[in-house]
Amino acid sequence: MITVTDLTKVYRQGKREVRALDGVSLTVPEGSIHGIIGHSGAGKSTLVRCLTLLDRPTSGRVEINGVDLTQARSDALRTARRRIGLVFQQANLFDSRTIADNVGYPLELIGVDKAKRAERVQELLGLVGLPDSGDAYPAQLSGGMRQRVGIARALASDPDVLLFDEPTSALDPKTTNEILDLILSLKHLGNLAVLVITHEMHVVKRICDSVSLLDAGRIVESGPLVDVVNTL
Ligand code: ADP
Ligand code: ADP
Q1: Which residues lie in coiled coils (predicted)?
Q2: Which ligand minimizes its atom distance to the CA of 42?
Q3: What ipTM was reported for this prediction?
Q4: Helix or strand or coil: residue 45?
Q5: Which residues line ligand 1 (CB under 6 A)?
């Protein structure tokens, strides 16, 4: 489970301050999908960077199963970061590596041996519906398939939290629905807390259990999907 408490990020530009995030709090238990929806400029990108500690929040906590990532330093931070699998808008695959090597990359980084890696990669490719694509290269796959590979890679290090950053904005409607169904199916693994950050209401409506509405760095509504959708 992921718990975010009072997360604030202030950017300074000369004398001007921009409060990109202002006291954001939320909890996502395992086995559930939480959506964060907001217009352009609401603070979504900043939230993604602060949750993954690519950017240091100005204040506040990001806890995964009770461990505060914002207090972790260097080695501990690298380990803690692996607790969050990040899926980008575009899969961001290495074009010169096979699909199997892309998915296995996070495992390579932590020194998992080749045989174990191959086994885990095959399992992950099966999970995302691409059991026969390991030897292909990214350019040979469709956008939807590449996004599946991105999801498999995010799952490789067996994270507790899966964070999707605009996962379907680059996809056509049919492919979008297929990817949303895949995200929904991950819920049934049971042990993942899934966070989906998007500007698209239809994405939230289709897959989320609960939703937070982000506006100018603040969460202005939060609760079960039906309740929040009814306020809009
Ligand atoms: P979104 O992803 O929802 O479009 P962002 O997180 O990119 O929103 O931006 C939130 C606010 O913070 C905006 O006002 C943006 O201009 C500002 N902002 C984002 N990053 C920076 C930065 N590095 N320096 C200064 N202001 C920033
Ligand atoms: P996105 O499509 O991710 O919302 P943005 O256009 O909001 O992209 O931001 C792109 C990059 O520019 C991000 O790294 C963000 O932090 C930075 N950025 C956004 N607004 C500002 C700003 N006002 N000043 C400086 N950097 C900014």
Answers
A1: none
A2: 1
A3: 0.71
A4: helix
A5: 11, 13, 18, 20, 38, 40-46
